[in-house]
Amino acid sequence: MLKLANVVLYDALVSEEILRFIPSDVPAICVGKRAGKHSFTQEEINDLIVESAFIHGHVVRLKGGDPFVFGRGYEEIEHARSYGIETEVVPGISSALAVPASVNIPLTARSTSESFWVITGTTKTGDISADVALAAQSTATIVILMGLSKINDIMLLFSQHRKDSTPVAVIQNGTLPDERCLIGTVSTISELVVQEKISSPAIIVIGEVVRYASIVETVLQQKNNYQ
Asked: For the chain, which terminal residue's Cβ has fewer other Cβ atoms within 10 angstroms, N or C?
């Protein structure tokens, strides 16, 4: 798709390795939105997609992860279609699935977790999603995207349901060379995030399956001690 593009509109989390596939003579515009740093509003991105299609022809809207999981993908498609522009989706892999796997955390495991929730940490209004409070009552694995700025409030909700000792992982820059995985519990993770200076982009994984990452890290550390 990139080789056939007449213009590429890409997000902030798209890796440099992927961007190198864009032909050098093709305009590439970063329209990425990061926490507190929006180079373009969503409405501006929608209009730019349409404008670029009419001016250049084939527009590739390049996103990280799965554009249909908190990626605003369908909103952009719907806007383009309202102008009669044909669209095609190339599915991606959501960070909600890939990032825990990169640090050996299974979202489901026999006798440990039978299901998982994927929730946005903050809503359009900036509030915590009401689904977080519901998830805190579940035994499922909980994956929270875009929730690091609200981690204190999120952990308080889980603590109210007597889950202080439930394992929690915060994974920064998942799958990248500078990936960091911080492991604690509902009662300790907020303080650890501050101590270790963990920042966005990061995802939060809450549940007993996080213990698998702890086991793997322990084994790896033991191996390193013998080398």
From this structure: C
146 is catalytic: yes
Convert the pLDDT of each residue in 6-59 to its tens digit. 999 999 889 889 999 999 999 999 998 665 555 789 999 999 999 999 999 999
Instruction: Give the residue numbers spanning the domain of 177.
Output: 95-217
Q: Which is the catalytic residue, given 63, 146, 150, 163?
A: 146
Cα end-to-end span (Å), the chain: 46
> 33 catalytic, yes or no?
yes
Q: What is the CATH number of the domain that holds 31?
A: 3.40.1010.10
Write the CA distances from 24 to 5, 8, 9, 35, 63, integer angstroms. 11, 11, 14, 29, 19
Active-site residue identified among 33, 47, 131, 153:
33
